[in-house]
Protein backbone atom coordinates (compact mmCIF):
# COMPACT_ATOMS: atom_id res chain seq x y z
CA UNK A 1 0.00 0.00 0.00
CA UNK A 2 2.89 2.34 0.74
CA UNK A 3 6.64 2.40 1.01
CA UNK A 4 6.66 1.77 4.76
CA UNK A 5 4.46 -1.30 4.49
CA UNK A 6 6.45 -2.54 1.49
CA UNK A 7 9.71 -2.13 3.42
CA UNK A 8 8.31 -3.90 6.49
CA UNK A 9 7.03 -6.76 4.32
CA UNK A 10 10.43 -6.99 2.61
CA UNK A 11 12.21 -7.17 5.98
CA UNK A 12 9.78 -9.82 7.16
CA UNK A 13 10.27 -11.85 3.97
CA UNK A 14 14.04 -11.59 4.40
CA UNK A 15 13.77 -12.92 7.98
CA UNK A 16 11.52 -15.77 6.84
CA UNK A 17 13.84 -16.61 3.93
CA UNK A 18 16.83 -16.78 6.27
CA UNK A 19 14.80 -18.91 8.68
CA UNK A 20 13.73 -21.25 5.85
CA UNK A 21 17.33 -21.68 4.70
CA UNK A 22 18.29 -22.72 8.23
CA UNK A 23 15.42 -25.21 8.38
CA UNK A 24 16.37 -26.60 4.96
CA UNK A 25 20.00 -27.05 5.97
CA UNK A 26 19.25 -28.92 9.21
CA UNK A 27 20.50 -32.47 9.37
CA UNK A 28 18.67 -35.06 11.45
CA UNK A 29 20.89 -34.54 14.49
CA UNK A 30 20.39 -30.77 14.46
CA UNK A 31 16.63 -31.14 13.85
CA UNK A 32 16.43 -33.21 17.04
CA UNK A 33 18.80 -31.02 19.10
CA UNK A 34 17.32 -29.02 21.98
CA UNK A 35 17.06 -25.25 21.84
CA UNK A 36 18.18 -23.89 25.20
CA UNK A 37 15.76 -20.99 25.59
CA UNK A 38 12.70 -22.87 24.36
CA UNK A 39 13.44 -26.33 25.69
CA UNK A 40 12.03 -27.73 22.43
CA UNK A 41 13.82 -29.48 19.62
CA UNK A 42 14.96 -27.41 16.67
CA UNK A 43 12.14 -29.00 14.66
CA UNK A 44 9.45 -28.04 17.16
CA UNK A 45 10.92 -24.55 17.47
CA UNK A 46 10.82 -24.17 13.68
CA UNK A 47 7.22 -25.41 13.61
CA UNK A 48 6.34 -22.92 16.36
CA UNK A 49 7.62 -20.02 14.27
CA UNK A 50 5.91 -21.23 11.09
CA UNK A 51 2.61 -21.84 12.88
CA UNK A 52 2.42 -18.60 14.88
CA UNK A 53 1.63 -16.20 12.04
CA UNK A 54 -2.17 -16.30 12.55
CA UNK A 55 -1.83 -15.43 16.25
CA UNK A 56 0.74 -12.75 15.50
CA UNK A 57 -1.63 -11.26 12.96
CA UNK A 58 -4.27 -10.95 15.70
CA UNK A 59 -1.92 -8.71 17.70
CA UNK A 60 -1.04 -6.60 14.66
CA UNK A 61 -4.69 -6.34 13.60
CA UNK A 62 -5.63 -5.12 17.04
CA UNK A 63 -3.10 -2.30 16.91
CA UNK A 64 -3.78 -1.46 13.23
CA UNK A 65 -7.46 -0.99 14.07
CA UNK A 66 -6.70 1.05 17.20
CA UNK A 67 -8.34 -1.62 19.33
CA UNK A 68 -8.38 -2.10 23.06
CA UNK A 69 -5.67 -4.75 22.96
CA UNK A 70 -5.75 -8.51 23.28
CA UNK A 71 -5.86 -9.83 26.80
CA UNK A 72 -3.71 -12.92 26.39
CA UNK A 73 -1.53 -13.49 29.45
CA UNK A 74 1.85 -15.17 29.41
CA UNK A 75 0.14 -18.22 30.91
CA UNK A 76 -2.25 -18.25 27.93
CA UNK A 77 0.58 -17.92 25.42
CA UNK A 78 2.74 -20.52 27.16
CA UNK A 79 -0.20 -22.92 27.27
CA UNK A 80 -0.83 -22.46 23.55
CA UNK A 81 2.88 -22.93 22.85
CA UNK A 82 3.10 -26.07 24.98
CA UNK A 83 0.04 -27.52 23.24
CA UNK A 84 1.49 -26.77 19.82
CA UNK A 85 4.84 -28.28 20.82
CA UNK A 86 3.19 -31.51 22.00
CA UNK A 87 0.98 -31.74 18.92
CA UNK A 88 3.90 -31.24 16.53
CA UNK A 89 6.68 -33.16 18.30
CA UNK A 90 7.26 -35.27 15.19
CA UNK A 91 7.04 -32.49 12.61
CA UNK A 92 9.02 -32.83 9.41
CA UNK A 93 11.15 -30.25 7.64
CA UNK A 94 8.90 -30.43 4.58
CA UNK A 95 5.78 -29.72 6.63
CA UNK A 96 7.46 -26.80 8.40
CA UNK A 97 8.76 -25.36 5.13
CA UNK A 98 5.29 -25.56 3.56
CA UNK A 99 3.70 -23.89 6.57
CA UNK A 100 6.45 -21.25 6.62
CA UNK A 101 6.07 -20.52 2.90
CA UNK A 102 2.28 -20.35 2.97
CA UNK A 103 1.93 -18.48 6.25
CA UNK A 104 4.85 -16.17 5.51
CA UNK A 105 3.47 -15.29 2.09
CA UNK A 106 0.06 -14.53 3.53
CA UNK A 107 1.55 -12.42 6.32
CA UNK A 108 3.75 -10.45 3.90
CA UNK A 109 0.71 -9.70 1.71
CA UNK A 110 -1.21 -8.57 4.80
CA UNK A 111 1.63 -6.24 5.84
CA UNK A 112 1.83 -4.76 2.34
CA UNK A 113 -1.87 -3.91 2.60
CA UNK A 114 -1.46 -1.77 5.73
CA UNK A 115 -1.61 2.00 5.33
CA UNK A 116 0.74 4.39 7.11
CA UNK A 117 -2.20 5.39 9.29
CA UNK A 118 -2.76 1.77 10.32
CA UNK A 119 0.96 1.26 10.99
CA UNK A 120 0.87 4.26 13.35
CA UNK A 121 -2.20 3.15 15.33
CA UNK A 122 -1.65 1.63 18.74
CA UNK A 123 -3.14 -0.89 21.12
CA UNK A 124 -2.01 -1.91 24.59
CA UNK A 125 0.00 -5.11 24.72
CA UNK A 126 -0.85 -7.02 27.89
CA UNK A 127 2.28 -9.15 27.42
CA UNK A 128 4.35 -5.96 27.75
CA UNK A 129 2.62 -4.69 30.87
CA UNK A 130 -0.03 -2.83 28.88
CA UNK A 131 2.46 -0.67 26.97
CA UNK A 132 0.94 1.02 23.91
CA UNK A 133 2.64 -0.26 20.77
CA UNK A 134 2.05 0.69 17.17
CA UNK A 135 1.29 -1.91 14.54
CA UNK A 136 4.70 -1.13 13.03
CA UNK A 137 6.44 -1.74 16.37
CA UNK A 138 4.68 -5.09 16.67
CA UNK A 139 5.75 -6.06 13.15
CA UNK A 140 9.36 -5.04 13.72
CA UNK A 141 9.58 -6.21 17.29
CA UNK A 142 8.70 -9.11 19.48
CA UNK A 143 5.50 -10.12 17.74
CA UNK A 144 6.84 -10.80 14.26
CA UNK A 145 10.31 -10.06 12.82
CA UNK A 146 12.20 -10.27 16.13
CA UNK A 147 10.19 -13.40 16.95
CA UNK A 148 11.50 -15.08 13.80
CA UNK A 149 15.10 -13.89 14.27
CA UNK A 150 15.17 -14.71 17.98
CA UNK A 151 14.14 -18.31 17.42
CA UNK A 152 16.55 -18.55 14.48
CA UNK A 153 19.43 -17.60 16.76
CA UNK A 154 18.30 -20.20 19.29
CA UNK A 155 18.10 -22.89 16.61
CA UNK A 156 21.59 -22.06 15.37
CA UNK A 157 22.98 -22.23 18.90
CA UNK A 158 21.42 -25.67 19.39
CA UNK A 159 23.06 -27.16 16.30
Description of the structure:
There is one protein chain. With 159 residues, this protein is mainly alpha-helical. The chain has a single domain (3-158), classed as Up-down Bundle (Four Helix Bundle (Hemerythrin (Met), subunit A)). The chain has 9 helices and 2 strands. It has a two-stranded antiparallel sheet with strand order 1-2. Helix 1 runs antiparallel to helix 6, helix 1 (3-25) runs parallel beside helix 9 and helix 3 packs antiparallel against helix 9 (145-158). The chain is globular and about 45 Å long. The model has no long low-confidence stretch (mean pLDDT 94).
Global shape: globular
Number of helices: 9
β content, as a range?
5-15%
Indicate how many domains the architecture comprises.
1
**Strand arrangement, largest sheet?**
1-2
Elements, N to C (H/E): HHHHHHHEEHH
Structural class: mainly alpha
Q: Bin the helical content.
A: 55-70%
In whole angstroms, how far apart are the ends? 39 Å
Q: What is the count of β-strands?
A: 2
Low-confidence stretches: none
Mean pLDDT: 94
Looking at the structure, the CATH topology is Four Helix Bundle (Hemerythrin (Met), subunit A)
Oligomer: single chain
What CATH architecture do you see? Up-down Bundle
The whole-angstrom Rg is 16 Å
Instruction: Determine and state the CATH class.
Output: Mainly Alpha
